[in-house]
Design a protein that fits this description.
336 residues; mainly beta; Neuraminidase; 5-stranded antiparallel β-sheet; 4-stranded antiparallel β-sheet; 27 strands; 3% helix
Length: 336
């Protein structure tokens, strides 16, 4: 796909009623279409800055898409950046796979290392991140591909691919360890009630391809006994990034259009965005025809455009319910 056909490629989304044989549900996209903006280096990331721009990442650079749909290099090299979020004062927080750390870009251009090591060991490959109302940041730390050099292990020598919480630069706590096989997408829910974790061990036959929900305590720790299965993609490609709308529905990037034998099938769960009720019921499906569908973000001033990254391409579709935006505890208390 080239830039010349950007904004011209339209793919019909597969509605849940037809694709899965379930009862018809209302659609959460305004039209059954997702529109491609072309091959623009949108491998991962997407994050809306609240001021008209969308940011996304790939191994080489971080790109900014402005309010007119123009693309600009924001940071190069990216150090194999993956997840991005903007904190409550608008600073970008970035997971860097190559440097195995989580950083924050300050307004004056300085870099603050938020998480570089844990108990003297380097992280695997920080991947995705989320923020709670107190400003604490949670990030996942899986390792895909070459697994040599993994330094974080338990007393039995087993590696960790869990979730960590950052309270301040260098102050990091592991909140999920062996409760999941390989943490990928993470999301704190409104009121800091739950932590959703995409468990995607996708290069292991029979590995987890599940979305879990854990209850969060006030101190930012996780109640491991509260773990609840929300959705299971079976032998298909499991969940990657995810977001919530204002009514609590989950939008999860998952599935494949072409199988990846022997690890991942593509016969049941196609590549796209899975819209799930809080209890895990599949409500809708927005098809994206490019592998791999990695993440999504709500954008535009009304937060009613869903942007999707997939295999270097960027897609968007208008939705019927605005996306949920995390806000600091003080603002939340004031608004209620």
């Amino acid at each position: 796909m080239t830039k010349s056909n950007r904004c011209t490629t339209v793919v019909q989304a597969l509605l849940v009623a037809g694709f899965y044989g379930q009862a018809a549900e209302p659609s959460y996209a305004q039209t059954p279409q997702a529109i491609s903006e072309g091959l623009v280096g949108a491998g991962e990331g997407p994050a809306w800055d609240g001021h008209g721009s969308l940011y996304f990442t790939n191994e080489q650079q971080i790109t900014r898409r402005d309010s007119k749909g123009k693309f600009h290099v924001f940071r190069k090299p990216s150090n194999d950046a993956s997840g991005i979020l903007f904190d409550f004062v608008g600073r970008p927080v970035i997971c860097e796979g190559a440097t195995r750390r989580v950083i924050r870009l300050e307004r004056e251009g300085k870099i603050t290392i938020l998480a570089g090591k844990y108990e003297s060991g380097r992280f695997n490959s920080p991947n995705d991140l989320t923020i709670d109302s107190k400003g604490r940041i949670y990030f996942s730390d899986p390792r895909y591909g070459n697994r040599s050099g993994m330094e974080l292990r338990d007393r039995q020598g087993r590696t960790f691919e869990g979730v960590y919480r950052i309270d301040a630069p260098g102050k990091v706590t592991r909140v999920i360890g062996h409760e999941v096989e390989r943490a990928n997408g993470v999301l704190v829910s409104p009121r800091d009630e739950f932590l959703y974790v995409a468990d995607n061990n996708n290069d292991t036959v029979g590995g987890a391809r599940k979305l879990w929900r854990f209850r969060l305590r006030d101190d930012g720790t996780v109640d491991a006994a509260s773990r609840r299965l929300i959705f299971d993609w079976g032998s298909g490609r499991g969940p990657d990034g995810l977001k919530l709308d204002r009514e609590g529905r989950l939008y999860v990037a998952a599935g494949l259009n072409r199988p990846h034998p022997p690890f991942e099938t593509a016969d049941k769960f196609k590549g796209g965005i899975y819209v799930l009720a809080p209890d895990g019921k599949l409500l809708d499906f927005i098809a994206i025809p490019v592998d791999e569908v990695t993440n999504c973000a709500f954008g535009d001033p009304d937060r009613m455009t869903l942007f999707v990254t997939a295999g270097g391409t960027l897609w968007h579709t208008r939705v019927t319910i605005p996306g949920w935006v995390p806000e600091p505890q003080d603002a939340r208390n004031t608004s209620h």
